[in-house]
Specification:
Layout (H helix, E strand, L loop, with lengths): L1 E2 L3 E4 L6 H8 L2 H4 L11 H13 L4 E8 L6 E9 L4 E8 L8 H15 L5 E7 L3 H10 L2 E10 L4 E11 H9 L3
Parallel strand pairs: 5-6
Antiparallel strand pairs: 1-2, 2-3, 3-4, 4-5, 6-8, 7-8
Helix pairs in contact: 1-3, 4-5
Length: 180
């Protein structure tokens, strides 16, 4: 579990299924993800939880909850390890909570955890063209653009333009030291 001033990043549970369906069943949310199908139903949430229970991939996936309601999921965030030194950051947040700084707060917490506690040397991330909020979050964390490309979006059932970004441990340290 990771705590921030307003959030708790905790393990997912079966009790999160209705909130996952409500959040990811919203096309405005799902369209900006790569691996989330649309429509998103209870079977999709249950399959995700089963993959977590089976530990099928070298990743860390955490539910995002408000401290005031720690049992109620409002988003998800995770790191998928590419190898022992690099991981890919991904996240989503309920649309009703957009534009409140919660995405940045959660992403900053897991980025600090990735470099500090988990010892990764590089984080990667990407955002879909037009997802300006995610772009701003990544820039505020210190990520820098690496390349443009296309990536398949399961929700859109097509390849979409993306920008790939990267954050090295040294740049993360600089950002932390500068209070950014």
């Amino acid at each position: 579990m990771i705590e921030t001033p307003r959030l708790i990043l905790r393990s997912f549970s079966a009790d999160d299924v209705p909130a996952m369906v409500a959040g990811l069943g919203n096309f405005a949310v799902a369209r900006n993800t790569g691996r989330v199908p649309y429509p998103y139903g209870p079977a999709d949430a249950e399959a995700f939880l089963q993959r977590l229970a089976d530990n099928e991939s070298p990743s860390l996936n955490l539910a995002i909850a408000l401290k005031s309601m720690p049992e109620k999921l409002v988003g998800g965030i995770g790191l998928t390890a590419d190898n022992a030194r690099t991981a890919d950051l991904g996240y989503w947040l309920m649309e009703t909570l957009w534009n409140r700084g919660l995405g940045l707060e959660a992403a900053r917490a897991i980025t600090d955890h990735a470099f500090g506690k988990l010892g990764f040397s590089t984080l990667t991330a990407s955002y879909h063209a037009g997802n300006d909020a995610s772009h701003r979050i990544l820039l505020r964390l210190g990520f820098v653009p690496v390349s443009d490309g296309l990536a398949y979006s399961l929700a859109r059932d097509q390849e979409v333009p993306v920008e790939y970004m990267e954050l090295a441990r040294a740049r993360w340290r600089q950002h932390k030291a500068a209070g950014l």
